[in-house]
Design brief:
single chain, 501 residues, alpha+beta, DNA polymerase, domain 1, hpI Integrase, Chain A, 3 domains, four-stranded antiparallel sheet, three-stranded antiparallel sheet, elongated
């Protein structure tokens, strides 16, 4: 909270007989012998600590020439009353009042009354009241009525962890590129500290960063996107004097999504030997996907894992898939909703984007899995009796309540580990559906529509590395189908160590 503090003092212009410096408040003529102030020598001054500027810098103001202490104190009382009137309306109002007091002191104009300021603030008719970045972020987020719950949570975390602590105190029209750049520099310094601490030989130092994660380039890009969106909204607001978005002029690492790589035998062997994954996004081959599904068959969540692997559903789309969006006769499913995890809470929402709402063709295996699930669910309903809570979902808990998405992730990881497969995320199982389509000869546009990507560029960026590897495997598979009575013996490759003829 901005505070107002002040004091009065008396001084004169008498000078020291030897040094020539003014004695100021030290002049012995200012007081009588009994310690009371003399009225015929010196004048009164005040020193006031005005509310800090929007950039948190202090502003100390001194004024003098008052005949009596009462005159100086009267001015201070007017200033204090203005600050007190603004305090119930937040930091922005207090900063604005500090600006007003400063302007009046510099120009010599009289102060407005505290009553008029109170009336103006309560009426909301304050066109010159510019919010701080922190206040505007809260206003902007509250105005975004149609955000998905997970997106709202992400914006809130960005604001709480970095945007408001580092930028929230600046008045929004005073925010500069340098201010924003300093926040990202602080992120980079934090990363350097964590990296150095984890590499330390001292266990106590390593313990200080236990559980802390590096802020990736992609995460920094998301922070900038949040700030940029909020500031763009401020630019469109005619009441806010902001015409420049400093977040748009910050240079950051690209944060491009990692390329998907296939778990080829060579990469599997290296992972088994070193424990290292070649990329954050790894994709199983069709054979590895088949191994996983063989191990998953019979599991209570099998139908959802099958649909993710075959038809590329997102986790939330699978957990929130209702029976009324499935047409088994025409072998299709319509994606209209998702069960989204927000923190640990879950709620039903719309698909991730407009492109995510889509109709998916169902293959015969998927239709068979869904029919089996329908029968299994009928058995669960009979066993639960009165405890059954009908939600109409394809896969639920044993009492019909929605399946928490995190439980599906746990099931996936346990089955994959049991099958001895190289590690992928549940989301990468969705990539496996794209891999199956690419192996079958589908083009990227078909894969984009299956996965519900908003742009084919996303599909191309993700699968650029997978397609050539699949093409080579397909070429070998096709060549092996050609019957040959003899195979031409190829010469040994160069530098193989084989002796010449």
């Amino acid at each position: 909270m901005h505070e107002f503090s002040a004091n009065t003092f008396k001084r004169c212009t008498c000078k020291h007989p030897e040094t020539g410096q003014q004695l100021g408040a030290k002049c012995q003529k200012l007081k009588r012998r009994n310690g009371s102030w003399r009225s015929d020598h010196g004048t009164w001054y005040f020193q006031a600590e005005l509310p800090r500027r929007s950039d948190r810098t202090r502003r100390t103001r001194r004024r003098g020439g008052y005949a009596t202490q009462t005159d100086a104190q009267t001015v201070l009382d007017k200033m204090a009353a203005l600050v007190e009137a603004a305090q119930p309306h937040g930091d922005t109002a207090v900063v604005a009042i500090g600006d007003l007091i400063d302007t009046c002191l510099k120009s010599g104009k009289s102060f407005p009354t505290a009553e008029s300021i109170t009336q103006e603030l309560e009426s909301g008719d304050t066109p010159n009241l510019v919010p701080t970045v922190g206040e505007w972020l809260h206003t902007w987020l509250a105005s975004r009525k149609k955000l998905r719950g997970s997106t709202r949570l992400s914006y809130h975390q960005h604001m709480r962890l970095w945007l408001i602590p580092h930028l929230g105190h600046y008045r929004i029209d005073a925010l500069t590129v340098e201010h924003v750049a300093a926040m990202f520099d602080a992120m980079a310094e934090r990363n350097d500290f964590i990296t150095a601490a984890k590499a330390s030989d001292d266990p106590d130092i390593r313990k200080t960063v236990h559980g802390l994660r590096i802020i990736s380039a992609a995460t920094m890009q998301r922070y900038r996107a949040t700030l940029r969106a909020a500031l763009n909204a401020a630019i469109r607001d005619p009441k806010i004097p902001l015409r420049f978005n400093p977040a748009s002029h910050i240079e950051l690492p690209s944060g491009r999504r990692p390329k998907a790589l296939l778990w080829t035998p060579e990469r599997v062997e290296r992972w088994q030997r070193t424990g290292e994954r070649p990329s954050r996004v790894m994709v199983w081959t069709p054979e590895q996907t088949g191994t996983f599904l063989d191990h998953a068959e019979g599991h209570p969540h099998y139908v959802l894992l099958h649909l993710i692997a075959y038809r590329g559903l997102r986790r939330g789309e699978a957990c929130g898939l209702p029976w009324w969006d499935i047409d088994l006769a025409n072998q299709s499913a319509t994606i209209t909703s998702a069960l989204v995890q927000i923190g640990w809470e879950i709620e039903f929402g719309e698909p991730k984007s407009e492109a995510s709402g889509r109709v998916i063709a169902l293959d015969n295996d998927s239709v068979h899995a869904l029919r089996a699930q329908k029968q299994h669910q009928a058995d669960l309903r009979d066993a639960a009796g009165d405890r059954w809570v009908e939600h109409g979902l394809v896969c639920t808990e044993s009492d019909g309540s929605p399946l928490h998405p995190a439980k599906l992730t746990d099931s996936f990881q346990a089955i994959a580990e049991e099958a001895g497969l190289p590690p992928v995320r549940l989301h990468d199982l969705r990539h496996g559906a794209a891999t199956l389509m690419l192996a079958a000869g589908a083009d990227l546009k078909e894969v984009q529509e299956l996965l519900g990507h908003s742009s084919i560029a996303i599909t191309a960026d993700t699968y650029t590395h997978v397609l050539p590897e699949l093409a080579r495997e397909s070429a070998e598979a096709a060549a092996s189908l050609v019957p040959r009575q003899t195979r031409r013996k190829l010469p040994p490759p160069p530098h193989s160590g084989a002796s010449g003829a």
